[in-house]
Design goal:
about 30% strand, 3 domains, eight-stranded mixed beta sheet, five-stranded mixed beta sheet, 21 strands, alpha+beta, S-adenosyl-L-methionine-dependent methyltransferases, single chain, Rossmann fold
């Protein structure tokens, strides 16, 4: 049987050099945070592009994914990073480096420790009486938390070329199957939020709404639950004021929902605490748990172009993931390119009233030039605001796709101006529009570097 180690050897040669990030801010602390975010984004790009293209291995029953439904996140754990600071006239420049030869062993050791904990839980499960459903529920819940943690560290370790232990014998699929056989006594969302909150006593926590596994947009359940959880932990209103991020994900079985939350340190993205609970189906029977745009979400986040040297990133005043905005709130969007180049932005709007895609105006000018923005060398690696807007009806899901090139962009999707909406519409068939933007990139010469990033957020009343 062909196994995952061939993939590891292939990727190890790609990132044998140091990986770096840079951040600019008024203080060392803020610049360090920006640099860490930049480093995380670089690693995310590498993980996403390589997992999408090479993460399938031949198993006994055909092709199967080696990464067990990892949702590639920029909240990846950073171990053993080195920081340097340069005081400039009006700001501080922070640089962070992750040297594979120095940190590979740290990730290997971390994976070994998590695997030992999982092996111990597996042993306890095997020794537990079939009548002890409450204990089994707790053990399988703990195993689910550890498997999520294992996936996060393994995704980075693979890119760095770390020596990987054999995967734990207990898998997410097995845990989900066993949990589906058990009953949960958590029968309300108030009770669920209280149980979770007991595990997260830290101060200055920014709470994100939970997402369905492998999705990037918030369903109705996430919007309802995050309000309840925020009220029960020591939360802050903005990630900028946070010391920790509380990030959630769930899967749904026939009897229950398996909901996991992880408390991440802002400094390292390491997990400070983790808790998995199982919520009885009747607690959310009248609440939508699946995002409405699940098919397009998967399409948008697959096949993302990533250059080895040109990196483009999207962000907002709430971060770049697990985004939910309420009526009347202000959203500010940002873009960052790591070196001089050109960008254009495609938006995808999905509401009850309909769907459409559009080109976003980025500069003054005539024709296609109004949709293209040049990033000069002085603005490289700095967040550039794309403007603010207020959340107003109609509500739904908004996705943003940024496309960057090191050469001037002369070919764009054709648009027509819609006076009613004020948008330059590409198409009312958003899937066709996505094909158009990625089709354009394929026609570029091999000498042209191209990079892409996507971000989605949900707006509600």
């Amino acid at each position: 049987m062909k196994n995952i180690w061939m993939l590891t050897l292939c990727l190890a040669s790609m990132l044998s050099a140091d990986i770096s990030g840079v951040g600019y801010a008024q203080t060392n602390k803020e610049a360090k945070k920006e640099a860490l975010g930049d480093l995380s984004q670089v690693i995310k790009s590498e993980v996403r592009s390589n997992f999408e293209s090479k993460s399938f291995v031949k198993g006994d029953k055909g092709n199967s994914s080696s990464s067990s439904n990892i949702k590639i996140s920029s909240n990846l754990p950073i171990l053993g990073a080195d920081f340097t600071f340069i005081d400039r006239a009006m700001e501080v420049e922070a640089r962070v480096e992750l040297s594979p030869h120095k940190v590979k062993a740290l990730y290997t050791k971390k994976l070994q420790n998590i695997k030992k904990e999982l092996d111990s839980i597996s042993s306890e499960i095997g020794n537990t009486s079939s009548s002890s459903s409450t204990l089994k529920l707790q053990l399988y819940s703990d195993a689910y938390s550890l498997l999520k943690e294992y996936d996060r560290y393994e995704s980075v370790a693979m890119i760095l070329g770390s020596k990987l232990p054999n995967r734990p014998t207990l898998t997410k699929a097995k845990v989900k199957l066993e949990l589906a056989k058990l009953d949960s006594n958590i029968d309300s969302l108030d009770m669920a939020s209280r149980v979770l909150a007991k595990s997260f006593k830290n101060k200055n926590i920014f709470v994100y709404p939970p997402l369905m596994q492998s999705n990037t947009t918030v369903a109705q359940f996430g919007a309802v639950f995050v309000k309840k959880l925020k009220a029960k932990v020591k939360s802050v209103k903005s990630p900028k004021n946070a010391s920790y991020l509380l990030v959630g994900e769930y899967v749904v079985t026939k009897k229950m929902m398996v909901l996991n939350y992880e408390l991440l340190s802002i400094k390292t993205n390491e997990i400070v605490a983790s808790k998995t609970i199982n919520i009885n189906k009747k607690a959310y029977k009248n609440i939508q748990v699946k995002p409405k745009n699940i098919d397009f979400d998967a399409l948008l986040n697959s096949g993302v172009i990533s250059s080895s040297s040109l990196k483009v990133s999207l962000n907002s005043n709430r971060g770049s993931e697990n985004l939910l905005f309420n009526k009347g709130e202000d959203i500010e969007l940002f873009v960052k390119l790591n070196k001089m180049g050109y960008i254009y932005i495609v938006g995808y709007t999905q509401t009850k009233e309909g769907s459409f895609s559009y080109l976003l105006e980025l500069s003054e000018g005539n024709g296609n030039s109004r949709f293209v923005k040049f990033i000069n060398a002085d603005d490289a690696s700095r967040w550039i605001s794309l403007g603010e807007f207020t959340v107003e009806p109609p509500f739904g899901v908004e996705s943003i796709q940024v496309i960057a090139s090191n050469r001037k962009i002369n070919s764009l999707p054709s648009v027509s101006y819609d006076e009613k909406s004020g948008y330059y519409i590409i198409s009312k068939d958003i899937k066709k529009a996505l094909v158009k933007t990625r089709g354009i990139k394929k026609k570029k010469s091999k000498k042209t570097e191209l990079s892409e990033d996507v971000m989605s957020f949900t707006t509600i009343r």
